Amino acid sequence: MSVKYFGQFTNILIVMAVLIVLPVEVFSSEISEAKVAAREWIREDAKQGSPDAQLILGRMYYYGKEVKKDYNTAAVWIGKAATQGEPIAQYLFGLMNYTGRGVKRDFGIAAFWFKKASEQDNPDAQLNLGRMYYYGRGVVKDYESAEIWLEKAAAQGIEKAKYLLRRIKKR
After folding, report:
1. Which SS3 state, helix, strand or coil, does residue 25 take?
2. In this model, does residue 61 exceed pLDDT 70?
3. How confident is the model at residue 94 (pLDDT cuts 50, 70, 90)?
């Protein structure tokens, strides 16, 4: 996270932590006001280009947390964070392209984003990229490449990667 966003982002995290910890029935009107303020701080930081805020805002839309669920808007914000190199956003944007949520389904684009996130050691992206090579989805079927990415995911404790590795070795 860049220094210029650190102060504002820290404020957002504090507000969000307070919202999670405070009992709703005690401060319901204050919490509602704080939620609105936190959402607006996140939105403003996202508009100013903070990849962390863009990811948070995208996830809010993806899951319908404090905003109406909207996969298309989620894809816009998560995609912006992904293009700035945010590894979780890259993984999620790959997943959105793989499933067709918020974007047109495209396995090739999904593989591109999974690879970007995999290169930053995201184990879920490594698993999905390994699967794509294993099954030949969006990439040319390549057991050697599948094995490379699945080994990286397995080394980070991803059980499904270990299972696919066993299948590759049995071939």
Report:
1. coil
2. yes
3. very high
Name the one residue in this structure whose structure tokens are 């071939």: 171
DSSP assignment of 57-110 equals HHHHHHHTSSS---HHHHHHHHHHHHHTT-HHHHHHHHHHHHHTSSS---HHHH
Q: Structure tokens of 27? A: 């401060």
Tokens of residue 111, six digits: 């593989």
Question: In the predicted model, what is the mean pLDDT of the chain?
Answer: 87
Task: Quote the CA–CA distance of 94 and 78 in Å, as a whole number.
Answer: 10
Is the pTM higher than 0.85? The answer reads no
Choices 1.25.40.10, 1.10.3720.10, 1.20.1560.10, 3.30.450.20: CATH for 1-106: 1.25.40.10
Going by C-beta distance under 8 Å and a sequence separation of 6 or more, which residues neighbour residue 24? 31
* One-letter amino acid for residue 87 of the chain: P
* CA 52 – CA 147 distance, rounded (Å): 31
- The model's pLDDT over 2-34, given as tens digits with 9 standing for 90+, comes to 444 445 555 666 556 555 555 555 556 666 777
